[in-house]
Design a protein that fits this description.
alpha+beta; five-stranded antiparallel beta sheet; 10 strands; globular; binds 2-acetamido-2-deoxy-beta-D-glucopyranose; Cupin_1; signal; apoplast; secreted
Length: 233
């Protein structure tokens, strides 16, 4: 009698509980995993990059002999050399320059712009970027996957954000040099500069891909290629 009452009382609750658990599982599956927001989480205090190791891991192998200089870099103090095609220079302070950054999920760079200089449209596949303007003024922007341009003119003291993976640029339309410091949530954000990626890849992107994608002729492709230097690394 008692068991029957209990069964009768609890049976309408069972489907409810099952639905709640199912909903919870669905919500948890839909939530982005925290580890996809940037570089993977670290499993130890430090893992200073052994940049010469042949061991292939996600990041760099840890080296045994660590010194304070593995966490130190002086390269952002001076302006980069902007005497190049675009009139801009990026100086990285990433894991390749600061081995102590390995597994820590952050890095910085300094970007200098001559008057008229452009940091051409590019993306960072592994990081969101925040720029802080040290001097001068810049017209900056990024383009969403919905093809909306989000753009602004920023000056010394301003901060602007370029969301991870989105194409963005900075142009110095002033008549004095400009400079920014950038922060990234990756030890090595990676850069794909659109023009260089498409027109200076090695081996070359098939010309038929470029002529059809940009609706131009082979002459125009050759002209662009002749003016874009191959990517350094
Ligand atoms: C800057 O780069 C240009 C072109 O590569 C070079 O001719 C010039 O000597 C460099 N200037 C400095 C100060 O290094």
């Amino acid at each position: 009698m008692q068991a029957r009452t209990m069964a009768r009382a609890s049976s309408p609750l069972l489907p409810c509980a099952a639905v709640a658990v199912l909903l919870l599982v669905v919500v948890l599956l839909l939530l982005p995993s925290p580890s996809t927001a940037g570089d993977p989480d670290l499993l130890q205090d430090i893992c200073v990059a052994d940049l010469t190791s042949a061991v292939k891991v996600n990041g760099f192998a840890c080296k045994a002999a660590v010194t304070e200089d593995d966490f130190y870099f002086r390269g952002l103090g001076a302006a980069g050399n902007t005497s190049n095609t675009y009139g801009s220079a990026v100086t990285g302070a990433n894991v390749e320059k600061v081995p102590g950054l390995n597994t820590l999920g952050v890095s910085m760079s300094r970007i200098d712009y001559a008057p008229g200089g452009l940091n051409p449209p590019h993306t960072h596949p592994r990081a969101t970027e925040m720029v802080f303007v040290l001097q001068g003024a810049l017209d900056v922007g990024f383009i969403t996957t919905g093809n909306r341009l989000v753009a602004k003119t920023i000056t010394a003291g301003d901060v602007f954000v370029f969301p991870r993976g989105l194409v963005h640029f900075q142009k110095n339309n002033g008549d004095v040099p400009a400079a920014v410091v950038s922060a990234f949530n990756s030890q090595l954000p990676g850069t794909q500069s659109l023009a260089t990626t498409l027109f200076a890849a090695s081996p070359e992107v098939p010309i038929g891909v470029l002529t059809k994608a940009f609706q131009i002729g082979t002459k125009e492709v050759d002209k662009i290629k002749s003016r874009i230097a191959p990517k350094k690394s």
